[in-house]
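Q: I have two molecules that I believe assemble together. Could you output structure tokens for the complex as a whole instead of separate predictions?
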Amino acid sequence: MSAVLIAPADVAGARRNRSWTLLAGLVLVGAVLLVALLSLVWLPYAPADTTGTRLEAPGGTHWLGTDKLGRDLVTQLMIGARIALVVGLGSVAIGAILGITIGLTAAFAVSWLDDTISAALDVVIAFPVLLLAMLIVAAQGASLGSVIVAIGLAMSAVVARLTRVLTKRVLGEQFVTAARTSGTRWPGIVVRHILPNIWPTLSVNLALQFGVAVLAEASLSYLGLGAPPPNASWGRLLQEAQGTVITAPVGAIAPGVALIMLVIGVNFIADGLRDVADPARKGSR
Amino acid sequence: MTNYLLRRSAFLLVSFLIAMVAIFVLLRLLPGDPSNALLSVTATPEQIAAAQAQVGADRPVLDQFLTWFAQLTRLDLGESFISSLPVWPEIAARLAVTVPLTLMAFALALAISLVAGFVAAIKADRWYGILISGISQLGVAVPVFWVGILLVSVFSVGLRWLPSSGFPRDDWADPADALRSLTLPVITVALVMSASLTRYVRSATLDVMGSDYLRSARAQGSRYTEALWRHGLRNGAVPIISILGIELATTFLGAVVVESVFGLPGLGSMLLKAIEQHDYPNIQGVLFVSTLVVLVIGFAADVAQRLVDPRLRVSISGNR
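A: Yes, here they are, computed for all two components at once.
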């Protein structure tokens, strides 16, 4: 669960057709997204409906069976998809806004401030997202909101460091000097020259961070520090199904498969985006 | 190098101090008073005041911090609010589970990923090279607790080869027994960790294989394996070392999840319990030790990188 800055390029993948990666990623994430949207308007059963037989095997009335309280597993999984996406999007949004702001500040700051921010970021990054999130959730109490804030805050350090490095690189370019000379103010330079230039690399990283956030949320929920019931997070479903893994294996397998689908999907999208951002890399090596 | 060691040590010390202050402040943001943990809901104001005095919550925050810090310099981590037991022996007992778990998992993951990553790189066009790449791509998306649940269901519940959870009550009195308890947790962590490590090893190997210096060495008549060994190893090791440092720290702290799956009395489960109970001395104690471990690992990784690659010795953090 480490916070990966930029995962190494999948070189064997690069030799194969790369649009395939992006397509596969979009299909996987799209499937989860559709299920999540569908859950807003239709669910097979009410989330708290415990009328089913306990630990029923998959069948006609309950497609994937029921859990130990008699709740329908498909219903729980659909709600879980919604929670996973909300946590992913929410924490990436917080991490991006905060991280980009801090990173730009450090890149533009006088050297002592830059050094201080960088050192602080290095210390924060040394801790896994999960541990930071555990502490913040502990401080705020376990709720969906505090999970999102916690993961977003922990993520912002990684985004900030990357933004700082990328911005420094762009600041050394001649077109920035040219823009300065022609009278463009710094805010204009940030909006017109820096953000468009760092965005391709940054968006790849943010896609990867989305996957990290989804996994961190699942771990928090598994530990009992996630959103409380009736929020059926995939992590909590796995925690509840752990004791009945032999009698009702589907309950312990399906949430894990759903989780992997979503995380692999966003990782594929990140790989695909990397090639769009940097076509020169596609055929190289 | 001496100059670098001095500066890096100063950085280690300062970041440790900052982390300690941050942990202390963050904990004071926890809702509720720590004395609440000692009281029933029907406590009288006198009982509340007595409990606050007992945990020191009636004194100014700065005063509390200075007391705690003075204790730290004597390596005294205080006593638990809940059990009144000293924190340090408890942590030491927990470390006897978490440290072997981390190190064994790390060693196993390293062994797997060095071989798998290298094979995946030099045989990138063979079916098994592609298979290894595919599995490691899949592996980074798998939550560690899910691997644990599946392994338990197969090897403990199904085949009954290994215990599903717990740790011997007498710790390492019977090493074979303790090792049996750690086998599945170690395999769980190692499998997940080796997925991401394999990707890095493979990428570093591919970088080395495509490098100009390797081609030059070959052009000068060096055999391929010899060139890889003499020039590639050192160059390829540099990025790997920093990843290894991060992975080792992540495993140590991330042990909380796998300890939870297997019911192991490690440092992570101590932290989880302390957070639930608002037991500040225990939380601070665990964070003190884990922060120290993480920062020292980072220090060691940075120094090791500079021993391997003298070009890095100029800058302090290597990323600027």
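A: One point stands out. Chain B touches chain A through 62 residues (CB under 8 Å).
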